[in-house]
Amino acid sequence: MKLTDVIRRPLITEKTSILREDGRTLVFHVAVDANKVQIKRAVEQLLGSKVEGIRTSIAHGKVKRQGRFAGRRSDWKKAYVKLREGAKIPEFLEGA
């Protein structure tokens, strides 16, 4: 799996913005089959910051309806990445 396939996009929500205020925690939407080692390697190589720890969670897809037809969104995975003390968040993620 390529590094760009592991990390899909950064998650920008109210909750993740509060976590980002400490200057060390970033949240990403990652591939469902990616493990913590792959996520750590991808963050360190793509962002150039050292990682202290990673927590992952699976978000289950919602059931959506279109009239009488029901469908289901697919499950997805998010990773809470904590950077080491003194590590700098990349500029393109600071303003987001």
Low-confidence stretches: none
What fraction strand? Answer: 35-45%
**Distance between the amino and carboxyl termini:** 27 Å
Strand order of the largest sheet: 1-2-6-3
Q: Percentage of helical residues? A: 25-40%
> What structural class results from the helix and strand content?
alpha+beta
> Using DSSP, what is the number of strands?
6
Instruction: Return Rg in Å.
Output: 15 Å
Order of helix and strand elements from N to C terminus: HEHEHEEEEH
Q: Calculate the mean pLDDT score and round it.
A: 89
Largest sheet: 4 strands, antiparallel
Please report the number of helical segments: 4
At a glance:
This protein has 96 residues and is an alpha+beta fold.
